[in-house]
Amino acid sequence: ACTLKAILAKWLDEAEQAGALFNEKMGMNERKRKRRTTISLGAKEALERSF
């Protein structure tokens, strides 16, 4: 049981570090704004008829 606890503790530490790195990268990309999707008038009308 002690080995399992040690393995899980190590895994948790690695996962938390990876999560912190991921959050830092996401923070850098957060400044870039995604462009809004544009739909042509014909496609919009076809969608409105279908739904």
TrEMBL record:
GO terms for molecular function: DNA-binding transcription factor activity, RNA polymerase II-specific; RNA polymerase II cis-regulatory region sequence-specific DNA binding. Its main location: nucleus. Signal peptide: none annotated. GO terms for cellular component: nucleus. Gene3D superfamilies: lambda repressor-like DNA-binding domains (1.10.260.40). Keywords: DNA-binding, Homeobox, Nucleus, Transcription, Transcription regulation. It is found in: Nucleus. Residues 1-16 form the POU-specific domain. This is Pituitary specific transcription factor 1.
